[in-house]
Amino acid sequence: MDNLTILESLQQTEIKNKVTNFLCSVNENVLVEHLTSSRIKQTNFSFDEYFKKLEESNWQDIREQFPVMDENFMFHKKNIESLFYDITNSFYEDKIFLQEKSIIQDQYLEDINIGEGDQHNGKSTAILILSENQKLIFKPTDAGISESYFILLDWVGQHLDMGNSMYQIHNKKNYHWQEFVSEQHCNTSKDLQTYYKRAGYLLGILYVINATDYHAENLIAHGDTPVLIDHETVILPKISTHFKEYYRQFNEGKKDTVLNTFLLPNNGAKGDFPVGACGLGCSKETHGYRDKKLGVNRFTKYWRMVTKLAEEDYIKCNVPTLNGKKVFVEEYLEDFISGFEGCYQLLLKNKDFLLSKDSPIQHFNNVPIRYIWRSTSAYRIIINFMKEPRNLIDKTQYEYKVRKYLSVAYNDFPQNSPLLKILEHEITQVLRGDIPYFEVNSSSRDLKTEFGTIKDFFELNAVENIERKLKKLSLEDQEFQKAIILESLT
């Protein structure tokens, strides 16, 4: 079968089915409630006839019963269809170049799994399933920050053995392709020693460049090397303190430590982020339990939602495996501390160079990065709650509740505060069903929102913030950070 035939087949048949499955998944609560109501009203109920009519009418009956869905349903459907088509077409347009860069071989496209990350602006990360059991990552973002990060890794790699910590990227600016980094097990205890020494190097790098949000899903144990697979928060600007009297987060004051990376267990952290979900994992908390709504007997007339106490594994592909057993950092603490200290010493000794115009740090200038105003999980909780059928009947009440939940953090703000633009930005994106996203230029101190720009929102832009941290490096700080590591892991 030639590529054109495959493309046409995928676009005409499989994409339609995938869009349907995706819409059913994200709207499952209301779909099941409407299905149940329809089944009760009809004596000879046929699910196939019900679902066919539903699709042909673009879910009209459901949208009438739950008016809040009416505005977003067609918008989301169009976005999802466009995303599938864009990914498919882009793959075939870029395939030769992807082969030339050895990101893929001569494989053909078999499947696309979207929704592999949070949805921002109607788009999300996708995994392409290729022939010969190969995979490829599509991200709807500019990969400039990844390219900059790899330049820094390359410089560090001239002094320390970083292993295979980088992967191939093809950046098209408005989207990019990533080589798929697979989990690979270690073969010997020597591999584990190497892994955790390199993990120490990685922590040293991330600490100095002010990285954050490196939880379990953003780290892959790739043989004897830990690999970061998402770089949008690898550098971070420093927020201006002149807002602190209005916002309690500033008053709590995050300490400027290795814990900010999220690689390490942070037993003192408050909020809904499990300790065991940190990047390097935690042997004392490998899983948890929570009530979870699940669809059962899906795509039959007996489709219903049930609430179960579900076990949630915090360990993904982020902890190395030897002989079928996950091996945690505590067992190789000496190697980990040695790696951190070695990297810290390298950066300290080269401080002047790293602050110069020839520094690899300069490559971080003028690249788009993500600024996290509040945790993604907080947004997700609100969005999932608002998907409950009872919340989708009255549009006015729906918006009122979204505004109420998001506004709690702004209670102490004066009515003319420029930070209220952030609130309106959040509300608008949540009402669209998106996780709010703030894109920042790494060389700017301004924060752009859909309701205008907040000038000098940041005291230091992301590059200036790295320079601040470099200037802070000292033997005293090194020992302080090591003490925090030991406290975290023992």
Structure explained in plain terms:
By secondary structure, this protein is of the alpha+beta class. It folds into three domains: 3-139, no CATH class; 181-365 and 462-489, no CATH class; 376-460, no CATH class. 43% of the residues lie in helices and 15% in strands. It is built from 15 helices and 17 strands. The longest helix is centred in the N-terminal third of the chain and has 34 residues, at 67-100. It is globular. The mean pLDDT is 91.
List its traits:
globular, 490 residues, 15% strand, two-stranded antiparallel ribbon, alpha+beta, 5-stranded antiparallel β-sheet, 15 helices, 43% helix
Low-confidence stretches: none
Oligomer description? single chain
Q: Which strand-content bin applies to the residues? A: 15-25%
Reported for the largest beta sheet, the result is: 5 strands, antiparallel
Share of residues in helices: 40-55%
Counted by DSSP, the helix tally is 15
- Average pLDDT metric: 91
TL;DR?
The chain is an alpha+beta fold and 490 residues long. The chain has 15 helices and 17 strands.
Chain-wise SSE layout:
Elements (H helix, E strand, L loop, with lengths): L2 H24 L1 H14 L5 H10 L3 H6 L1 H34 L8 E6 L11 E5 L3 E6 L4 H14 L11 E3 L4 E4 L9 H20 L10 E4 L2 E4 L9 E2 L8 H5 L34 E10 L7 E10 L7 E2 L2 E2 L6 H17 L1 H4 L13 E4 L4 H11 L8 H13 L12 H12 L6 E4 L5 E3 L2 E3 L3 E3 L1 H11 L2 H15 L1
Antiparallel strand pairs: 1-2, 2-3, 3-5, 4-5, 6-7, 8-17, 9-10, 11-12, 13-14, 15-16
